[in-house]
Design brief:
It holds the Pfam family Pyridoxal_deC. The protein has about 350 residues and is an alpha/beta fold. Helix content is about 40%, strand content about 15%. The longest helix has 23 residues. The protein binds pyridoxal-5'-phosphate (PLP).
Length: about 350
Amino acid sequence: MQIEPQAFDRVLSSMCTEPHPVAREAAERFLATNPGDPGTYPTVSALEDDAIALLGEIAGLEDPAGYIASGGTEANIQAVRIARNRAETRTPNVVMPESAHFSFQKAADVLGVELRIVPTDEQYRADLEAVRASVDSETALVIGVAGTTEYGRVDPIPELGEIARSVDAMCHVDAAWGGFVLPFTDHEWHFGHAAVDTMAIDPHKMGQAAVPAGGLLARSADLLDELAVDTPYLESTSQATLTGTRSGAGVASAVAAMEELWPDGYRRQYVRSQNNAEWLADALEKRGYEVADPTLPLVAADVPRSTFDALRAKGWRISRTATGELRVVCMPHVTREMLASFIGDLDRLEVRASVPVMSDD
Ligand SMILES: Cc1ncc(COP(=O)(O)O)c(C=O)c1O
């Protein structure tokens, strides 16, 4: 096969990135390993313990339980599954803001729980009054997002934890994207800040690990027990993961990236990405577009559909929010030069649009 994957030089919409060189190298070395079978693949299984210990350190959890999942989707599904299995009612509900990732829709569908979706406030954060009004004695889980997919916003996690506790529900934080930048901000988002029970935090996003490397963290091992099934033909006794065979490459690359980058490398990357986001927001604002403040390295701006389409036609991999705004994620592969070139293309399109069309007649 001669085909090469896409280059990253015009990718502005992805929440994944080029793996760090040490992560790439580790992934290649561990390509043929399966942490789903620890009796046969003990080395990668021990590496997974290291990955969880490192993720715990990042997320303010001293004695973490968890595993390296296929991504944020699996981690979110499993968190809903833990809460559903813990719930004492047969008709549990899950309360989350409308900004939460669509993986929770999948979770609700697969697990048969009622999803109660509440609005966000003018800052695109979970509206606490709406959350309070939606929870009841059958609420199994309250979800907060720490780094939303569309606007990069952080929900008021301590308050959501308190609301969850007030009805004996669990609290899950989706930091799948934000978890590797939030440690360098003032936001309260993790286990040390709030009554959080479970978290999605993905090395294969801002953590610069190879795909697939998602992370599920739980405050205590007994929460993972809610997921465990017996594994008769394996030398281990039970399995809490959703998939059976799993990617050892993902596990190894997550450990390699975190050992290399936590904390200083990630801090430097956060500063670079955040500066880039602010530069882009400023450049768009100066051109008259309405921009949602980049509280984390993600910019959303009200760019007309025709301009968006023209930029995509020029090869820019950009995407739109549910309400149609241009969305640019300043991932580690996104450089200032790329953004300057993007703005250059935008300016050329606008000049063309403002030149009157000459007609022959
Ligand atoms: C906040 C958030 N949660 C979950 C996910 C799903 O992650 P994955 O695509 O790795 O399953 C995403 C994906 O972008 C996300 O932004």
